[in-house]
């Protein structure tokens, strides 16, 4: 049965309103995934085939899409950003509202969207604070069918050396495709976030909602070979679930 939803968040960040605006309209690959910048006008084309319904840089941006293609569970999707200056414009206050209509598996889809919102907005703040204005080489991929298992993210965290008892802010050596030092910038039973001087690694426990575990890489190193990194991480992730 169709049912409306709304997910709202507010936060402050150590970035100017102009930097936040650039991140949400132009440099989305640094914290979400790459998308074409919206046409800078009301009625223009926005991300994923949406239409721009509010455009007031750097204060308000809204896009809306009806009959969402390739998403059977949803018929309406709207993203709304309000940005205001704080401390004379040195910081910004942001209000984010994601709303729409879900038509299938409402509770599960809403829970996934609600929890993903916190991780994505946290990643936005990490990007603005540590990599603001830089362009990322981006890759995203899923684990094998076995990574849909109830304990799949537990297995991935264990393999990385980032167990459920590891607190956010911990610096440690990660055991991925190779060993590297990182800060655990986000850790819940649903997601793992890792930050290095090079970029951000995001691990999504989508097994909680019936999907494979996913990983996204945001590499800010100039000239980074993201395809090589993606292949190494994909092999590593597949290997986690090929072990008996």
Biggest beta sheet summary: 6 strands, antiparallel
| Radius of gyration (Å) | 18 Å
The CATH architecture classification of the largest domain is 2-Layer Sandwich
The level-1 CATH class of the largest domain: Alpha Beta
Q: What separation lies between the terminal Cα atoms?
A: 41 Å
Unreliable segments (pLDDT under 50, ≥5 consecutive)?
none
Seen as an oligomer or otherwise, the chain set is single chain
Number of helices: 4
Output the structural class. Answer: alpha+beta
Q: Which strand order spans the largest sheet, edge to edge or round the barrel? A: 6-11-10-9-8-7
Order of helices and strands: EHEEEEHEHEEEEEH
Q: What number of domains?
A: 2
Using DSSP, what is the number of strands?
11
């Amino acid at each position: 049965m169709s049912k409306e939803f709304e997910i709202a968040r507010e936060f402050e960040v150590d970035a100017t309103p102009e930097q936040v605006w650039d991140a949400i309209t132009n440099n989305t690959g640094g914290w979400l995934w790459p998308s074409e910048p919206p046409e800078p006008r009301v009625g223009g084309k926005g991300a994923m085939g949406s239409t721009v319904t509010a455009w007031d840089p750097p204060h308000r941006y809204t896009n809306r899409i009806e009959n969402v293609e390739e998403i059977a569970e949803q018929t309406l999707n709207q993203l709304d950003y309000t940005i205001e200056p704080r401390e004379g414009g040195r910081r910004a206050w942001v209000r984010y509202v994601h709303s729409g209509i879900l038509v299938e598996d409402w509770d599960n889809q809403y829970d996934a969207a609600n929890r993903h919102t916190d991780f994505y907005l946290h990643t936005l703040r990490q990007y603005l604070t540590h990599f603001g204005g830089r362009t990322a080489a981006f890759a995203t991929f899923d684990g094998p069918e076995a990574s849909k298992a109830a304990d799949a993210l537990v297995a991935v965290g264990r393999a990385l050396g980032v167990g459920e008892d590891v607190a956010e802010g911990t610096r440690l050596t990660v055991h991925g495709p190779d060993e590297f030092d990182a800060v655990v910038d986000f850790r819940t039973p649903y997601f793992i976030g890792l930050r290095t001087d090079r970029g951000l690694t995001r691990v999504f426990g989508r097994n909680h909602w019936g999907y494979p575990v996913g990983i996204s890489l945001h590499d800010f190193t100039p000239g980074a070979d993201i395809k090589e990194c993606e292949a190494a991480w994909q092999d590593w992730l597949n290997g986690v679930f090929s072990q008996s």
